[in-house]
């Protein structure tokens, strides 16, 4: 594994990159956080997104904030309706954050309703109102450095701009929304694993739900992969209703991801990974994690010829001009990529078959777009092909039926 762990910068370069990245992120601090106070009415031409929100955060008494970044002792459920300004007053891919309270719905994201989900009946009523013909739900798991309101508004933006009509469920875990709390946030994902497992299982077991898609970003991808691993171990398999998993800029140690995929078992959903070698946030994470590559920041395109034995599609967005300083939110804040994401959320099959690769991953639409002069690159790859050649052979042994053999005094792991 030394080929992917080798540092490419002098020792001080990563330190400088960390400080610069943190400075950029810290510059976003200071915005209002009590923005979840409902406004009386939405303006003309606005759109609404009705989100079911589950959280392991601790409730707060602060008006308009609802939940803090601390860890709660229970899973709390809310039904939140978000108003989005008319397209003429906003840029696709952006969250127009309120500049004051109450927000101005014609120009800013605003909340129309915050309801407490007191019973399962409330959940059924919400789903009946929001389900589409395929009875799809999409579960979103946010990333590092997100407050409760960050997660709510970002998910509303993704649902609106991607054009999906799947019923939106947000799972928000206890992030303090502070760039200097990386380790606290990482432990909070571990704290929340069982809760996300339960949500996945309950969604899949419901006779009202026909299909489940999971969308996870950054550190939330680690939580999602761990939860799916837990579901497989508890349930002996991942439910067949969980069709697609989308990992955007996944902040996962590449060695750990290989183990997670193996331990999910053979009945895994289709995975789509949005990655970029220009993602500065993942470069910082790599440095913090001892120089081990992150799944979302590694260039897998040289291995495009490998068979997708584990059903993974990698969409390389390195050539896409990012709209955020770190290049970490391209999946959601770039107009063309969020539309491509919409095709994923619509449940389009990623199965290999007679259709072309372009048809399977929606590249026909992307190639007509202006992506900084170059279309996003797409490669079908497996975790074994984004690590070393030796690791590929090990993984093939691990995926074989029966117990792994002892070879030269070693057992594959």
Automatic annotation (TrEMBL):
Keywords: Signal. The keyword Nucleotidyltransferase does not apply. It comes from the Bacteria. The lineage of its organism: Bacteria, Pseudomonadati, Pseudomonadota, Alphaproteobacteria, Hyphomicrobiales. This is Esterase/lipase superfamily enzyme. Gene3D superfamilies: alpha/beta hydrolase (3.40.50.1820). Residues 1-26 form the signal peptide. InterPro entries: AB_hydrolase_fold, DUF900_hydrolase, UCP033909. SUPFAM superfamilies: alpha/beta-Hydrolases.
């Amino acid at each position: 594994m030394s080929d992917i762990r080798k540092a490419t910068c002098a020792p001080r370069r990563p330190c400088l990159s960390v400080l610069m990245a943190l400075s950029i992120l810290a510059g976003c601090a200071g915005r209002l956080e009590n923005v979840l106070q409902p406004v009386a009415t939405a303006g003309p031409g606005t759109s609404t997104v009705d989100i079911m929100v589950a959280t392991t955060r601790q409730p707060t008494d602060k008006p308009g904030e609802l939940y803090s970044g601390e860890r709660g002792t229970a899973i709390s459920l809310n039904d939140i309706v978000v108003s989005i300004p008319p397209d003429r007053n906003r840029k696709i891919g952006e969250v127009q954050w309120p500049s004051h309270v109450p927000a101005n719905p014609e120009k800013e994201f605003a909340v129309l309703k915050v309801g407490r989900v007191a019973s399962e009946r409330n959940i059924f009523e919400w789903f009946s109102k929001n389900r589409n013909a395929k009875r799809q739900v999409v579960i979103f798991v946010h990333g590092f450095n997100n407050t409760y309101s960050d997660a709510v508004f970002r998910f509303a933006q993704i649902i609106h701009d991607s054009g999906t009509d799947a019923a939106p469920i947000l799972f928000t875990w206890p992030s303090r929304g502070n760039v200097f709390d990386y380790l606290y946030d990482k432990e909070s994902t571990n704290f929340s694993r069982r809760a996300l497992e339960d949500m996945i299982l309950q969604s899949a077991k419901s006779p009202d739900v026909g299909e489940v898609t999971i969308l996870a970003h950054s550190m939330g991808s680690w939580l999602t992969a761990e939860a799916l691993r837990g579901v497989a171990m508890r349930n002996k398999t991942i439910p067949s209703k969980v069709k697609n998993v989308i990992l955007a800029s996944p902040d996962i140690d590449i060695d750990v991801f290989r183990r997670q995929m193996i331990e999910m078992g053979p009945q895994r959903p289709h995975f789509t990974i949005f990655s970029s070698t220009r993602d500065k946030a993942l470069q910082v994470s790599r440095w913090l994690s001892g120089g081990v590559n992150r799944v979302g920041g590694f260039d897998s395109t040289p291995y495009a010829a490998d068979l997708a034995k584990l059903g993974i599609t990698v969409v390389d967005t390195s050539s896409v001009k990012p709209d955020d300083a770190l290049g970490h939110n391209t999946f959601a804040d770039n107009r063309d990529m969020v539309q491509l994401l919409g095709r994923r959320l619509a449940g389009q099959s990623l199965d290999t078959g007679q259709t072309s690769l372009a048809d399977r991953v929606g590249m026909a639409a992307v190639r007509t777009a202006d992506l900084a002069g170059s279309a996003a690159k797409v490669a079908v790859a497996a975790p074994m092909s984004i690590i070393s050649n030796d690791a590929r052979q090990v993984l093939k042994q691990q995926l074989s039926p029966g117990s792994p053999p002892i070879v030269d005094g070693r057992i594959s792991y």
